[in-house]
Structures are given as structure tokens and as C-alpha cells.
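Annotated sample (chain length 862).
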Amino acid sequence: MDISISGLPSGVTASTTSLVLSARGQGPVQFSAPNTATYVTATISVTGVAGALNHTLQIPLSVVLPATSESAPIRTRYVRTDSYYNSNDLQFAPPHFTVYDPKHKRFFVSNPYLNRIDVFVAQQEVGIAEIVVPGAWRIDITPDDTKLFGFTASEVFVLADGSLALLGAPGGLSVDSYQNFATWNPTSNALKIVNSLVAAPAGCSIQNIGAFGLSGDRTKILAGSIDSDGTVCSFDATSEEGTVGSFGGFLSQITPTPDGKRFFVTSESGTVAVFDASTVAKLGTFHGPVSNTSPPYSLGIYGAVMSLDGSTLYVVDGWWDLVAYDTTALTEKGWVPNFSVVDFQQTIVPSAVDETGLIVGPTGHGVAFADGARIQSGVTSPQIGLGFPTPPTGSASGGTTIQVTTSSGVQNLNNFPSLSQAYVGNAQLVGASAGSSNPNDFPTITGNTPPSAVGTIADFTAVFSNNNVSMMPESFSYGPSFVEVVSNAATADGGATGAIVGFGFGESASALQITVGGKAAPITAFNTNPPYIPYPFILESVQFTVPPGPPGPADITLTTANGSNTSVGAFHYSPAAKPYPLPGADLQGGLYDPKRGVYYFADTSKVQVLSLTAGSWQTPITLPGTGSSTQLVALSLSPDGSKLAISDFGDKSIYLLNPDIPSSAKSYSLPQVAFDMGTAPTGLAVLNDGTIYFATGDTDGTGDWAFHKLDSTTSVFKDFMQLQDGGLSDNFIRVLLSPDGRVYSQIEGIVFFVEPTTDDLTFATAINSNAGGNGELALSADGSTLITNGFFADANLNAVGLQVYTDREVWLPVATVGQKLSKDGSVLFQPLTNGIDVVDVHTGRLVNRVQLPLQLPRYMTR
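Output written by the structure step:
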């Protein structure tokens, strides 16, 4: 029997196209395609001839490309940065979070809650670097593209002469507004404050500044009021004169033309006005997008960006449509394919654009790219929503049949576009189709996944016949994949609880296996969804019992029905924990005595002493006059080691003794009169001369919080200040002594230090907490770094950084009070109920989460 094969598509070859077989015989034929092949489906013909018999069989053939990258091969794209943006921050008066560097073809996007600025290459649309900037809020780049400025609050713009325009602190009438701005010369450090309450031309006469920016030539500062009058001002930075005009209503954003001659003002009402940048005369208005409903209504504008040539203004409306307008004719040019994500911030906030029309801006948990060069004519196509793929994971060999539901902002199936292409990562969904068994339902996209490597995380992207784009980022995983191992360390004795966050874990814990260092790690908890919605990814978490292992790095392996994935060296074993049990004790404050090589701990009515050299507890220090009401809470050792002070919250007393002579202990009772009534001592610090500075907490519900000084030689008390807080009691207030003799404390979020030589108090500004703080205060041994209220600060209480986490890093652990800093202030140790976080102070980010095989108290010792 003669067999022939025909109809092979271009680029596809067969090992043979003809062969001779005996009756009922078989013969192999292998089809192949080069790496340069494109996705194609075809039908080939297989014909068999045996004497007078002739039969032809039609066989479908597909060239399936593997998914080798996360995103579809189009310019509309999403990149996860783990950023968290409140939609109220971004939509109603969008901050200047993004800039474009045309010299190096890079975008810079502020990621304030992770202490960094993310850097992206425009052509590849990929992240290449992270610049550490604590709390970087709004950013700008110098005209020569050599310097990037990022500030922790308000706004910053670079003027043409290299000086900076800075927006001041929030004003008194609205939390969303500011009262003044200034110009600052970085070279001379000269700062000129322009008070908006001063009448023009000296100022801008705007009490509540909302919109803020520069003219395109960077010579004028542009500001707009958030009040209903919509006052706008152009302030000439050279002449220091302001010119005022009116938008005539609430405005949200000011967008200048590159030539510096005009600027556009957008608003939540959807109205757009254009002004002369010098005279602030209104040159024209037009109305932005309106709904396709009957009757139509304004969709508002939430974000705008100007093309580099000044010809096109791109805006995002209330239904997340990206619409382009002609800046000369003031008419609509068309719409741009865009997408939304399932998050509090659902769509791009257009913030910067390059010379090719690529638009970039923050969105929920990431950065969005939109192709502004692809302006589509006709009625704006509504955003098409996508559900998460079902199932969200499959085999690396491909062939998993997935379904993705669709929806539309306008409930009209007659206008719903047909599916053009669907992608899993950069490869097409095999046999993709869109349809519905119910004509009243939006279609469901169905197809089979292409192959990929185990651990690949892929976007699902749909392109429709009208060129609109929809996307579900990082929604399909080829087998299990790691996003983060938290915790990533434990003691060598095992027994602690570890955790992994990632994709593709499956539907139940029974089908998931974990090994650490080759040893089985029993699963203790499994979550198939993040703990809150909306959330843009099907991010899963699994907790497990850490097996014992030798100190050092260890591999973690995840195994599901769809394959295994190993993260090499992702886990670390530290030496085994050594317990020092003390039955019946209730330890509170603790400290180390380097002179004697022992640790002191405040027990209920005595001081416990631990010697690591001896490996045991020593004879405790007893104190005079203790009883059933005694409650020791804090200890302090003088710098020379000659004095140990202990506070007694229960008996409202302070004890002072020489650690070499415990019987020397003397008690000082707080005077319960006037200012001090109803308070008891908490944190304290003792100097070499026996002077004790201490804080007091409320005991009777009067809400008195105070700071004091005790001269132990004369037994005289001195009161410094009083703070009222509605009667809350806190016996965990910290008072710390620095190497240079300063005394630091934090009471109800108010941070300060005392100079003992003068008893002068210096209060912090930026690191205070309006929410009352959390009682935390830690100081490095060298006195260089302090942490409180989540801020890192220098010795003068100037903020230098923030302690930050990604949201997934706080889903599972419970933090406790008891932060500590390393000797040089470079590392923060944050206690958890079952572990310790190790945080890099420079970046403010988590480095290691060390799990312990024991439960820590809700309040750690001092």
C-alpha cells in the first residue's frame, strides 16, 4: 500500500511524505517547524492507494508556539510592581508619579509604599532597575535628562534654570489641598516660599492648591484650586509674579503643552479648558467623553497626558476608556485600546508618553503601558472585562482547556466585537473561539493553552476585531510557581511554620507537596485566594511545618499534579534555638549588662538574671516594699553600668540600685498630686549620676500621659509635659538613652528627645503619628538611627526612611511590640508572634523572615 501526504502549510516539514506499508502495517511520520514559525492551523491530506482502492483522510494540523514570556506580543501591557495605590489618590488629583527620559528611552514610575522608583526600558517595556527613595511620592527629571528628583510628600518639579518648584504641606481646610509652594536652588540651598494667601502678583491667591505643575518650557509654576471657583494661576519663577484666571468649576489636573504657551485643565465633570500660560486667558473649552446610555451623561476625566509634540491630549474617563483629543481643533481624535484590572485602582493613570506614543502610568499593583499611536476612529469602544481563566493552572506540556468569561461596560451584545486573537503569555491560545449558549449572555473565550516551562506565569490577553484589548495579568500558571517565600528562614531544630505565596498550587492541599532541603514539610494551611478583594491576581498561599535541617541554605520544592518547581537556596536554616525556661515567670522589660555579661528581665515583683556563660538563671534581685500589687515593667542601665533603674507600674514607684550590691535598692514613690494623679511609671532611662527620666501611663481613665525627671539624690520630681488621650492605659512606653546622653521617647505618637544638660525638649515633626503611634521606639547602639511609628530617623529626629511591606508579606504573620536595631542602625529586627523579621533599614524592605518553633508574647521585652 502506497501512502502519500500533501497540503503541508508553509514552514512545516515532514520526515517523509510517502511511504510503502504492508497490509495492516504502520509507519512513523514526524512533523516539525522551525523556531521562526508562526502560529497556524491547517488541514493535511493523507492518501492511501492499494491496487484499485484509493482513500483520502483529512487530518487537522496546528503549529503551536510555546509561551516563553509573560506578556502578549503587543505594546499594550501590564507589569507587576507590587505597588499599592489608593484610587482616590490617583484619580481625583493625580500625582506626578511618572516621567519619561527621552535621552535614555526610559520611564521612571514612583512606587511610594515600597520605598522606590521603578525603571522601565521603553522599547522592551520591561523593568530594569529599582532606585531606593524612601516614600518617593512625586517625581520629575531635569531638562537635560541627567538628574531625577523624588520627594516623600507633596510635589516637585524642575524649573528651566535647575531650581525646583516644591508644593508645600497640606493646608487647614482640606486634607487634599495645599496652601503654599516654594522655589529651591539645590546649589545655593536658597528657599523662597510663595504664600498663596498673599494677593497677586506676589503670590497666586489660592488657599487650597490641588493641581500643580509647570509650563512646558519650565519657566512658570502652574497651580489650580480645588474649590468650586476653579482658580488657576501662572507664577513666573523669574519675575516672581503671579497671574490668575478661572476655570469656573472643580478642576483636577493641569497638563501643559511642550512649547510652554498653553496648558489644559481637566475636571471630574468632563469639561476641558485651555489657557494661555502667560496671561491665563481662557482660549477655549470642550467636553470630554460622555456615556453611550440614553440620556448620555459625563464620564469625568481621571488622568491626562500630552504627547511630546503637543498635538494630542490623552485622557481616561470614568469607564476607563482612553480617549485622544486634538489640542488645536479641540475635537476628539478617537480612542486608544486600553484595559482594566481587578483592583482598587482599575486602570492606567496616564502620566508620561514617549516619542512613539507609548503611554505609561501606574495602575493596581503595577504599571500599565498603552499604545497611544493606535488611535481608533469611531465611537469609543467600551472596556471589555475578563474573568479569571478557569482553571488558572495547567501542565507545562500545554493542552489545558481554559474558559474566560467576558463582560462590557455597555450592556449591548449587538455592539460586542468578535474575538480576533487570544494569548497566554506571548503565545496564541490554541483553537481560540468565543461564543455563548445563551444569546443574552456575553461570550466566553475558550481554547487550549500552548506549552511552556514549569513555573511560567502568563497574562491572558484578548484582542478583538475592533482592536480593543482586554487583559488578566498573571492569571495562568504552568504548574506551581513561586512569588515569594515568606518566611524564608527558620532555626535548625525545625517545628516552625513556613509560608510560600505563589500561583498554580491547585485546588486542595491534598494534591500539593512541599519539601525543604529534600525533607517533607507537612502542610498546615492552604488559601486559594488572597485575603481581600478586589485583587488582580489569583495569588495563593500555603503554610507548612519546617522540618529540621543543618544550618545554611536549603532548596524548596513545590509539587502538584501539573509538575514540580524548585527554588534553589530559597530557604535558610539558622542555628537551633536554645531555650532557657523559667516556670511561673511573667517577664516584661529586658536588657543586657555588658560589664557583667548577664541579662536582666523585669518579672512581676523581682528582677530575673540570666547568664549565657553559665547557661542558667542566676539568683534574682529582690526589691524592697514589693507586694501583691507590684508590676515591674521596664529597666534601664546607666552607661557606666553602676546603676540599674526599674519602674513599678503597679505600685507607682521607681527603684534604683547598684547591680553589684542588689541590697542597695532604693524606692521612689511618685507624688500623686495634680499633674501626676492617676499615672504610673513606664519606660525610663538612668544616667551615670542617678538622674532618671521616665514616662508615665494612665491608671484611672483620666487620659493623662506625661514625661518626668527624678533626681535620685534629692528625691525631687520634675514634670515636663502632659498629653491627654481619653483614658487609655499603656505601660509599654519606651524611654531610651543614646551614647551622647540624649533621652528619647515616644508618647501617643509624639516623638521627642531631652538634652539632660539643659532639660530642653525637641519634638519631631515628620515622624509623629496622628493615629497615636504603636508604642514602638528603638535606637541603635551607636545612636545614629531611630525607628518609631514606622519611620526611620536620624539622631535629630529627621525622617530618613520608612518600614514597608508588600501586601502579601502581611497576610499571615502577626507583629508584636519589641523592635530592635542593630548596633550600626543598618538592620531592624521586627518581632512576630512566631518569628522575627529582618529588615534592611536602607531600603525599608523585608530581607528575611525567621520562623521560631515557639510562640512569642504579644509584647516583646524591651
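Annotation: Residues 87-91 form the longest helix (5 residues).
Annotation: The chain has one helix and 74 strands.
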